[in-house]
């Protein structure tokens, strides 16, 4: 093969390849453009695919619109303290996509990333192979839906779906519905079905909850003033352990409100403890419903108490509000439910996702498959992460904090490029 032929067959090279075309990857592209660094974004599906395909019809943000602060693209609508619905979120993202105008290759699932002996990255995808000096992984941390093995033993006429597949109550067959999990998705989907008039059975896990409004303001507004959203993970009492926490359940639906599972129980929803197994035609639940409800309320009241302390310390004039007291307590705990006798015809699994970085050949992962990093910077030169929950702050995986993380990563890339003798330091404008 001649030198010309070899050059023609060599993979295209970029200074930086970004894996993932969601809000995190596009935010990185925004700052790379500002720094005048050539790059390519590889997206498995289409940009911001998850927002378009893995949200139910009545979905709305649980954080107020003013927290939508993608780089160069703050929320500028007429309702900063409202909560955008699904179509409004997509419109917001479409405007961001047009503004960034990122160099994206869609339909390019990355199958392998490895680093050669010279420090260059080999990136293989379903739409071609590439090389890069640096790689930013922006594919998020929610990849593989969790469905327990017991699901395989259920009757085939039971419709089963994961939370990312749920759209609305009418898409499910007539009959009662079992929702498994009470995190943000589980609580909101249970509410959606309940409001649609469906009989809902909810397996309640250990998710905490928080108030929507407290002492005259959205709780998010209070926490922002208290600088909670600026706290780095290294200063959090749980340190990196906070990344394993389930999100607090609350909703932005209909202008925002609390989600109180006890109220749902008074209205006919049947609550159980954590789902443990299925055998002999019966679902088996742990006898921990009361404890899980009490723990969620303790978190609710503890957050409110911290706001009380902030108000008192700064002498803020805010209307008083009483401590939450339970509206309902389970008289007893049912630990078994006959699936057929209950009339349950469908199950929605809302117990989360696991990460899948099997395509990334790098010694950066812990025993649970999560990357070890400090603010997205790994111990492997030139390899970075962005968009993970609590990567740096509470907002790292959200519209509110991803810009700060993306800029930090691009600044770090620029610093590395400037210090590398074989790269042009002028590449970062």
From TrEMBL:
Protein name per its UniProtKB record: FAD dependent oxidoreductase
Keywords: Oxidoreductase
Species: Caballeronia fortuita
InterPro entries xrefs: Auxin_biosynth/cation_transpt, CHP04046_FMN-dependent, FAD/NAD-bd_sf
GO molecular function, one term: flavin adenine dinucleotide binding
UniProt keyword Flavoprotein, yes or no: no
Pfam families the record matches: Pyr_redox_3 (PF13738)
Entry superkingdom: Bacteria
